[in-house]
Amino acid sequence: MLLIAGAIGVGTLAIGAGVVNAATATTAKTNSNPTIALAAAMAERFNLNRVDVQAVIDETMKAHRTSMEVKHQEVFGMRLSQAVTAGKLTQAQADLITAKAAELKATMETNRRALQTASKEQISARLDAEGAALKAWATANNIPEEFVRFAGGGKGFGGHGVFKNGNAMTQ
């Protein structure tokens, strides 16, 4: 009985290794868009057209991103308004932060493809340079450091922090 359990365990490990190898190969091919593997698996499992399933996933994700962007903009505007009301920022500073955030978002969208193929060192150097430029912009416009994250310099903007204790950082 123990021998059978051991043989089943070895067989399971061998099958598991094959699945991991197949999954790794699939992941390598679909790493740029992880939903491709999901769409393929769902299409196969439910006997659906993979292209149709992918289209539904893409549409759903786009709608979710749009919804999250709208919510983010609402919160962004509310926080800036509260800072102006509390006297922590002037309306002119809030307007500058809003414009800078839009500029940084446009730049991020423009540079997204280039960053996908960049090395960690290149990304780190770019983040350091952008962090330094953002800090210089904030200083030139007398924007308190606590509000620099509103313009894109902090956790939550692209998943990377730009400032920590006044120093540029990459993670």
Concise overview:
The chain has 171 residues and is mainly alpha-helical.
Please specify the SSE layout and strand pairing.
Blueprint: H1 2-30, H2 35-46, H3 50-85, H4 91-116, H5 120-140, E1 163-164, E2 167-168
Antiparallel strand pairs: 1-2
Helix pairs in contact: 2-3
Please explain how this structure is put together:
- With 171 residues, the protein is mostly helical.
- 73% of the residues lie in helices and 2% in strands.
- The protein has helices at residues 2-30, 35-46, 50-85, 91-116, 120-140; strands spanning 163-164, 167-168.
- Strands 1-2 form a two-stranded antiparallel ribbon.
- A hairpin with a 2-residue loop joins strand 1 and strand 2 (167-168).
- Helix 2 crosses helix 3 (50-85).
- It is elongated and about 60 Å long.
